[in-house]
Each structure stands twice: as structure tokens, then as C-alpha cells.
Amino acid sequence: MSSPLLLGAEVPDDPPAMARGQQTVAILGSGDFSRSLAVRLVACGVSVVVGSRCVKRIAPGLFPDAVELSSQEGAVVKAQRLVVLALFPEHYPSLLGIRAALAGKVLVDVSNAMELGSGVSSNAEQLAELFPESVVVKGFNVISAWTLQTGTQDGSRQVLLCSDSVEGKSEVAQLARLMGFHPVDSGDLRQSRVLETMPLRLFPSWRGPLLATFLLFLFFYAYGFLRDLLLPYLAHGRDGFHRLALALPNESLPNVALVALALVYLPGLLAAWLQLWRGTKYQRFPRWLDGWLLRRKQLGLLGFLCAALHAVYSLCLPLFLYGPNNWSISLYAVCISQVKAGVEEPWDESGVWRSDLYLSCGVLALGILSLLAITSLPTVGNVLTWREFTFVQSGLGYTALTLSVTHTLVFGWDFAFSPQAYEFYMPPSYVLAVAAPCAVLVCRCILLLPCTSTRLARIRRGWERLGKVSIPLALTVSFKQDKTSLDAGL
Amino acid sequence: MSSPLLLGAEVPDDPPAMARGQQTVAILGSGDFSRSLAVRLVACGVSVVVGSRCVKRIAPGLFPDAVELSSQEGAVVKAQRLVVLALFPEHYPSLLGIRAALAGKVLVDVSNAMELGSGVSSNAEQLAELFPESVVVKGFNVISAWTLQTGTQDGSRQVLLCSDSVEGKSEVAQLARLMGFHPVDSGDLRQSRVLETMPLRLFPSWRGPLLATFLLFLFFYAYGFLRDLLLPYLAHGRDGFHRLALALPNESLPNVALVALALVYLPGLLAAWLQLWRGTKYQRFPRWLDGWLLRRKQLGLLGFLCAALHAVYSLCLPLFLYGPNNWSISLYAVCISQVKAGVEEPWDESGVWRSDLYLSCGVLALGILSLLAITSLPTVGNVLTWREFTFVQSGLGYTALTLSVTHTLVFGWDFAFSPQAYEFYMPPSYVLAVAAPCAVLVCRCILLLPCTSTRLARIRRGWERLGKVSIPLALTVSFKQDKTSLDAGL
Amino acid sequence: MSSPLLLGAEVPDDPPAMARGQQTVAILGSGDFSRSLAVRLVACGVSVVVGSRCVKRIAPGLFPDAVELSSQEGAVVKAQRLVVLALFPEHYPSLLGIRAALAGKVLVDVSNAMELGSGVSSNAEQLAELFPESVVVKGFNVISAWTLQTGTQDGSRQVLLCSDSVEGKSEVAQLARLMGFHPVDSGDLRQSRVLETMPLRLFPSWRGPLLATFLLFLFFYAYGFLRDLLLPYLAHGRDGFHRLALALPNESLPNVALVALALVYLPGLLAAWLQLWRGTKYQRFPRWLDGWLLRRKQLGLLGFLCAALHAVYSLCLPLFLYGPNNWSISLYAVCISQVKAGVEEPWDESGVWRSDLYLSCGVLALGILSLLAITSLPTVGNVLTWREFTFVQSGLGYTALTLSVTHTLVFGWDFAFSPQAYEFYMPPSYVLAVAAPCAVLVCRCILLLPCTSTRLARIRRGWERLGKVSIPLALTVSFKQDKTSLDAGL
């Protein structure tokens, strides 16, 4: 029979004093963070004392009634153990006056770094130097006043803690858990340098992929401008510059999407080839490859974004006719031209087939990509088994890639090989774009050949070229490695 | 080195009896909730006794075999502490017969209120009056039978508990945690009045925003009907009433979206101005402003919805041609009219530019808005740092607003200033709609001027006009306040 | 006052030794899973010893420095209690040599089954037979190496554990919690058969719905092919085969969507009718009905997918004109035909109304369906009360169904009743498709009649035909049952 312990029957026979609900926490400072923290703590049944240097200056009603206001020293004295410092780091020295009272208390430093890479020691470390007789715990700085007030609807918001004192850390951890947060041990106080700069980070994992996508777009846009607008204008004075706003972006976006998707699956293939070449899996990948493997999700999502924009842009094309006063005109132009041309047998079967086909491929590819985007949502991914995840990310992903390539090829087949497409010795942009995914697909197919696939499987099961039976691995590992090499990849 | 305590090494050296897996819970009543709870508890290794007044009436197989069926009294006697009442509140008195057996037990009341604002004391409070010798704990009423059976895939579903007994509450909390729920202390038994009405709530936070959006739509629809359909009909007998179904909604929706977006960013600006005017941040905002600040997310999502519908509607316009039998007709009409008109040089450059431009702006604005909508998903928001959140909600949000305004202005520029647009002295509806976002953007720009922005930053750092150095705040606070004033806003 | 116990003040007055951070865990095997686990444990402040048969073969830097490498026996000896086996199950016997050292330890089996339904005893059970003096705990096999390394952003990833030893299970559970996972007790070691095959599952709950949707599509596609392409070709040699790629799928998809939506709401109605007929709710539904009720969410999402694809396809239709070189042609063809036809008064009011109307209905239906799809995301659903959920899934769901039906009927009204639509005695496909949802809507309306609805409400409140006052149920139950019967249904 299974035990309630398992999910936390954490009631000691004799609950310690603080567990009986008599815990008192002091907060120094009376700003938003202080207020929000006080509100939350009171709601969780903890008694709170707010210490301020000039209590009378605090507007009435700023804090809930249950909160006691007092001088800084008074507050610290009332606190059993925990004293939260909601002050500017630069004001920490002003507390030296009450150093005696602070001795033996746990000082919780919630401050953030001013700027990235300030290099020197962190606020928390400086605080620890100032008050050697107190225990300093760094934490809560990644939690916003807002989150404190509203609480986390799914009680799964992480609070990173670090300290040199195990006991101090665990006491603060309890408080965090008490407030419905999920405390995570981030090691000793040195880690505070990382923790303090965390809130300053701005999408670190998106930097690279965003840059890559942007450069790709820039390249294809410039290429298209040169090939389709500038050169024709110089050569024949053909003026198509109005295409800069809509048509040209709409030609560049799908190319970006294609290359981005290729970049999602390339690193996985490189990793596989590397393992095949080395004949073992017990050497780490080069740093750049590891980094790339970790950025596939972002690359994939950006590729999906481009594809979606392309779709919407394309669907806008007919709207063009409804532009303020162009609808009739362009239409008219066409009719007249046709009448002049006096076409005889205007219906071309293959043309119809092609346009139908490439539209279908495009729609389906986008549909599958959106499924991939959905499964990359945290919660959705969480409920998938590794096999499901592999199926979605690898199986569906390659299907989407194949469809996109087909979409492109079917669209531009006879353009690609008509001589007048190379008037300026520049191939159409999609010819360049489609090269990368084609290469990826070919590599993938080679890996699927029995000779390579079996060898790769053996390597991933721990076999080495040396032929010795290697350190055995759980079968799960090989698969999980597989998932790893696919995880987070669209 | 850090301590396992941190994430819960909750095994006391001598685990209490109930923790050894011999815990027995009694459930009175044999309905769906009773059954689901029994199934879940058995799965978690707790032995369950279901007490019913006529056991023989229970269909065989209704409960899992591990569940023991017995009389109500028998069940209560077998239970160590916890007795879950899965009964109608109106049947609580029927338990007075076994009051002796219930004495000293923890009675868990899972019932809900019949209707909102019943005013009088809650079911749980009445229960507590009936059985003074028992401990009454309110809880689980926000959990559905369904959730009980299926469990929560991410084990993060909250269970709100309240009681006057700390011990009772903690025992029920263990049971909740044992079942994979996340217990939350909601205070003493008086809170049960709130808890019981909770399941009756129907999107309280969406009421206001929905009403506002609906009224806006109503206004713009009526305005458009009057200006574009009714008056022209009365004046010139022009019959355009078929536009009621598609064209008119499609004109109203973008206006609603524009105003809604403006309403998202207005309160933040008001708050800033208020702080500037007061010269301090230590006074609370008026209640209505607080409420408004808390509704920005909903307003933004509704605005996004309108914008998306507008996009789809617009993309449907060309489909109109494919209507059962209108395609050829309208087209033909156009051609003929053109032929009659015998236009000479029909191509107008600026027109093409404009239509391209406003389509691009529209697409991009919608794209950015959908990014904002995605980041407003709980899990996605959870993994963002405050700076990332601010960047997305404020930076991208204002970009989207600017793009939407451009989209509107470029679209309707020369209509706005052509005299025949004012035949009935009524400006085009989008002229009205675009006013609000323009005002917002202007205010925002003024706030960005050095003079105001530095002053505002100082105020948010705790500085006051009085000039005294105020109570210092952690730097984090000013930023987090910043986030607060942006959080949940699209 | 409420108690911190509630959310886990799990610090016993005298924390046990392992809780003081001196815990040492041994991992046997040096594969990816071993490495990832080691990395994670070290990060959480646990000291790790990796045991391998040939330590020197392990590439330097493969493991973090904090990890101690040693022989298998050495590692086991150093471990206090927990020994994780990251080996192939087939190598378990190779550990018999160090059976003495393993005695009294907790062996954590993380392996997966090779294939589904291997029938015989699980790896964990075989391990337990091999090492009777050790405690065997099954767990972590659903966690991938990837998840171990990156950790779960919301600390809510479940770890299923099973064992015959309560203590062993609870110790492993602590380790899991320590790493930020959410341990779940899955019973005794027999359950390991289920746990081991879990990672091999591939969307079990999606199988049925996917098959149903696929068959529906196949049927409608074949039907359309026969009716619109093959027979006309054979009869009149009309060649429309180019419609296979785009037009025909676009006609089949909405039909599939309609029927799928009908299948979502049908089981709920069947359940209600069954209860009415039986006159009681205390009999279980037949197995097939239960299964169907549990698959509604998937059916609904697939129906939504089809509807969305249909929308995109339809929006692509005008693009058809922009096909490589068909734009002008088809247009021209139309104009010419018109000119030849020499239509007199080409504008037909009703036609315009209809096309406007069915487009509006379609757009709105899709909009509502997407709202439903969003609320079926785990996190979004989690924050809804049962009443909100019911409102969304039932209220909005039926609205969407009604709109889709209207969309179809308005579209095809006069086709449906024109004789030439029945040339081959086959009704248009949408006539078949619309039948199911119409039936559902009618049944629903009948259920809403006072006579049936009141009776159903009484039955769901526990009333039985026998007339006896039945076992009372909490009012919540009737509603929650209601939600159950709607939950997960689009």
C-alpha cells in the first residue's frame, strides 16, 4: 500500500512554533514591493511588521490593517527570524545603526542589479559583508510586485533562492511555499550575482535566432529589390517600385521561412553525422553546435511567424483590387489587354493543376506548422510523452518541411528554368531559398538508409567503433537522447 | 551546500500513524462527487469508507472494489479524522442522529451556494453551528468531479481551504496535496461565504470589458447605419441595405478595436499623470482607476478579437465574388462601366502605394497583437522576466497601436478631407475611432520627453515634491511598479 | 488564524541526516540519462557518485566536476540509500556480483519497456526478483534526459513512482521534489508494468477521433469525386478533374467539421436520454458511451482543425486568379461569357444577401470555435470555474454549431432543392453532412423543454422514478455532473 508521505504529509508530530501560525516577518521599507509582500503574507496567515524610518509619512490605508507599522528597529525586534529588505541597495549601510538587532536574523535581499555585467560583488554579497552576524538569503527578486499581489493561478511560479546558510535558505523556502510559490535552490551566495542580473535579461535565448531571421530577411529583400525592381528599372525603365510595400516583403518572407526551417533541422543532422564519424557518442559536441541545438525552438517559431505572415499577405493580394480606387482599374486593364490580345483557347490545364497544387501544399504546411507551434507551448509539451513529442517535432516537422519545399517548387517550376528569369544572371530568390531545405531533406534521407540508421542506432545505444561492449545504457537513454536531439525543435 | 529541505524533505524521523498509509477517510453520500473522490483517494493509497443511508440501493460497480460501503454511522466510526460530506446542505440536519460519532472528527464541507449573494451565513457556518464538537473545514468545492477523476496533468490545480481550526485545515491540506492538488489557505470559516459563491461566478473580470466592447460596437454600427445606409436612402433613395450583414460590421469592428486598444493604454497614462500631478507615489489611485488598470488584459484581448474578425471579414470580401451567382455579375458590371467610361490612363501610382501600405500596416499590427495575445497566456507569461514582459506589453503594444493608427489613416486619408464625405455633416466613423488612440499616443510621447520622464522616474523611485529624502525603496520596486502598471495590458 | 503548515512548513525540529544536505546518490551507468541526472542533482545540492565498469573510458568533462567517478561497487558503497540504475535492463544480472553492496539500498529502475504488451513481468519486477534484499522503486522513466537537464519552467512536471516499499517510495519522492518535479504515487510494484509502457504510448486518446475524422473525410471526398467529377465526366464528358487538388477537399472539409461537431455533442445527449429513460443516474453508462464522452475534446479539436482549413482554403479561392497564368484567362472567360450572354439586369438582391449572410455566419462560427479551442488549453481551462467552463463549452459550443448549420443552409439553400442537383440521384454532400448537427440541435431543444429539463434536473439531483427520496447529493454534484458531461467537449 502506498504512503501519503509521498505527496507531502509534512506534519511533524510536534509542529515547531513558527508552524503554529505565530510566525512574524519584518519588512523594511514601505514601497510597492513592501506593500504587495505584506498583503500577500497577511492573506497567507503570517503576521507582518513593516519597519520604516518615518512611519507617520505612510499614507493611511496604504497597508492592510492587519499589518503593524513601526520603526525599523522595532520591526526587526518583533520578527522571529525573517527580515525582508525592501530598500535600495545603496541604503543598506543606513541599517548599520541597528546591526545589533539584525544579528542572528535572516536578511532576505530582494534587490536587482543596476545593469548587466557590473562585474563586482553582488548586492547580497555586500550585505553579507556589512552584517556578518546575520544570515543573508537572496531571493524573490525575480517575482514582481504584481505577481505578489495577484498570486499565481497555478501556484507554479518559481522563486530562486541562494545563500551560504542551509537553514536560512530553507526557512525562506518555506515562506515562499507558504505564499504559493515554488522555491528552487540555486546554490550558495555567489550565485546571487546571476540571480540579481536575471530580471535584466531580455530574451537571451531569442537573440541569435532573431538576428539570423532578420539578416535572412534583409538579404532576400535586398536581393529581390536589386533583381526585380532596380535592374529592370535601369535596363528598361520599368517602374515597379510600388511593390516595395507589399509584393516584395511577401516574396522575401517565404524564403526566410524556408531557410529558418532548414536551420531548425540542420543541427540535429550535423550531430548525427558527427556521431557517425566519431563512431561514438561519448564525446561532447562543439560548443557552437550545442548552442544551435538549444535554439531550434526559437528558430522554428520565427520561421512559422514568417510563413504565417506570408500566408496573410498572399490572402491580401486580391484585396488590392479593393484599394481605394484601383479595383476597377487593374481589372479593366486586364480585360482590355485580353481583348486586345484576343486569346483563342485560354484555358491551360497544367496551369490550373499547378496553382491548385501549390496552394494546397502551402495551406497544409502552414496547418502542420501551427500544430508544431502549439505543442511548443509549455503546458501542451508537458503532457506529451517523449515518443509523442518526437513524433510531432520530427515526424510532422519534416512533413511540413517537405510540403513547403513542394509548395515552392510547384509554384516556381517553369520560372526557374525559363531563360528570361536569368536576364541579369540572378536566379529567382526562391531558387536560393529552396536549396537549404532540399539539402536537409537529402541528408535526412541518407540517415534513414538501413546502413547508416542501424549504425547510428547502435552508436546511440552505446556501441563504439573500438568494438568493445561499452558501458551499457538504459534503452530509454538512446530514445531520450533522440528526443533531446529533437526536443524544442519545430 | 544546499539542503534537500528546500524542496520538501518532509519525512519526520518518526512518521505519524496516518502517514504510514493507514489513513482512512469517510465520505457521506454516494453521488458523482462521492464516487470521483473515492476513486481518486484509492488511487493515491488512502482507504475509503463510503457511508450511505441505504447501502443496498447503490448499484454494484458504482464504486471501485477497494472502497468499503457501510452505514453513515459505520463510515464515520471507521474514519480516523476526515469525514467528507457529499450531501445537500439541506440534509446536514439529518446527520444530527450521529452527532456523537461525528464529535472530534474533521467535517469537510464541499457544497456550493445555491445563488449569489444569499447574504446569510454559509453552509459551512451552519454546519459548524449544528456540530459544535466537530471541526469544520470548507474546501474542494471549486474542484469538479471531473477534475477529481482525471486529475490535473500538471499537478497545479488550486484547492482553496478555510476553517477556524489550524490543525483541521492542515490535515485537509495534506489530503489535497496527496491527491496532487495545490492547497491554499483562505483564512477562517467566515471566508467560506466567498468560497461557496466562487463556483457561481461567471467571468467577473470580463463583465466590464465585454460591456464596453459591446456598447462600442453598437455605437459604431448604429452610426454607420445612419450615415451610410439610412440617410443616403432617404436623401437619394440609394438602397445599400444588403451591406448590413457583412460590410457594415466589417467597418465597425476595426473602430471598436482601435478604441479598445486606446482604452488599454489610457489608464496607465492617467496613473502616470496622476503621480506627476500629486508629485508622489504614496497615495493610492482612485478605486475606478485601480479597477480599470486590472481590466486592461481583458480589454486588450477583446480588441484583438475585433481586429482579427475584421481581418477575416476583409479577406472574405473577394469571396463575395464567388457568392452563388454574383461573381460574374459584379465583375461584368465593373468591366462594362469601365468600358463605357472609356478610361484613358487608369493607373494611379499614389493609389497603389496607399493600398499596399495600409494592407502592410494592418497585417503587421495584427501580427504583433497576436504575439501580445500569446504572451497573455498564463504559462507563457510565467516564464517571462518583468523586463521581457514590459518590453512585450509596452514596447510591442505601442508599436501595434501606432501601426493600427497608420493603417487607418493611410486607408482613409483623402476620404477624411473630401467634402462629399460630410454630406450629412457626419464624419466617417473611423475619424471618430482614430481620435482616441491618437490622443493616447500624444500623451505617451509627452511622457517620454526628458523633463517629464526623469521627473516621473524620480517619483517612482520614491522621491517626493516635499524634497525630503523619502523612505527608500528597492530599485526593483520602481521597475516592478512599472511592470505592474503595464502587466496584463495588451 | 491560519497555519503555515498548510502550504508545507515541513521542517521537523530535528531534520534527519540526509536533510542536512549530506545526501549522496549513486548512479550506475554513464549514458545521457546518467549524465543529465547527475547534472541536475548536483545543481540541487546533492552529492553524486557515478559508478561505471570502466571509469577511464569516460571522456573528461562528460560529467560536472562535482560528480565523483568510481567503480560500480565503490559508488554503491558511497550511496546512503538511493542507487539509480541507468543501465539496460538486460544488464541487470551483471550487478549480481555486487549484490552484497546493494543489499538494503533503494534501487531506482528508470528503464522503459521494449515494446507494448510484452505481457510478462516488468523490468522492475525482474529486478526485485534478482535483488530480494534491496528495495526496488520504479520511477523517472517518463522523464526525458532533456527535461532533467533543462528542468521544468513551472516545476509542475509529474514523476510517477511505484514500489512495494512505502519508505523507499517516499525517499525517491523527496528526491523528485528536490529536483522540482511533482511525484505521484502510482501504487505497488505491479503498476510498473503500466509505467514502463507509458513512454511507448502514441496519443492513445487521439486514435479513435483521428480515425473517425479520417474516415469521414474519405467518405465525403469519395462521394464528391463520384458525384461532381466522375459521373458528370462519364455522362457528359465534362472534365473537372483539376478540382481534385483544391476544390474537392475544400468541399469535404466543412462536411467533416459539421459531422465531427455533431459527434461532440451527441454523446452528452445520449447520456441525458439514457438517464431520462432509466429514470435514475445511479447506473453506469455503457462502456462505449463512457469512452465516447471522454473523447469529445479531441473530436472537437479535429473538427475545429477541419473548419479552419476550410476557411483558409476558401480564402485561397480568389488567389487562384493569381496562379501563374490563369488570372487573366478565367477572368477574361467570364467577361466574354457575360458579354455574349448580354445580361440585362444582373444585380440580384437576394443573392447578395445570402452570400453576405453565409460568410458572416461562417466567420463567427470559426471565431467561436477558436475561443473553444483556446479554453481547451490546460492552463486556460485550469483557471475557469465549472460554471464558466460549462458556459463556454456548452453555451458557446451550441452557438457555434447553430451558426455552422446556418452557414451551410444559407449557402446551399436553393441548390438543395433544385432538381438538377439530383441528376444522379445523389444529394449534394452538405445535405448529408448537415443532417447530423440538425438532429443534435433538435434533440437538444427537446431536452430544453420544461417537461424534460425539469425531470432531468430532478434525476441529476438524485431523484429516482421509484419515488423514494434517494441518497442525497451535494447540490454541487448535479452541476459538476453537468460539467462532467460537458467538460472536454468543444
Structure commentary:
3 copies of one chain form a homotrimer. With 490 residues, the first copy, chain A, is of the alpha/beta class. Chain A is built from 18 helices and 8 strands. Chain A has helices at 32-43, 72-78, 99-102, 123-130, 145-150, 166-178, 192-197, 204-236, 247-278, 287-294, 296-316, 327-341, 349-375, 378-382, 386-416, 429-448, 450-460, 475-484; strands at residues 24-28, 47-51, 68-70, 82-85, 106-109, 135-138, 157-163, 181-185. Chain A has an 8-stranded mixed beta sheet, with helices on both faces. The radius of gyration of chain A is 31 Å and the shape is elongated. The two termini of chain A are 43 Å apart. At the A-B interface, α1, α5, α6, β8 and α11 of A face α6, β8, α11, α12 and α13 of B.
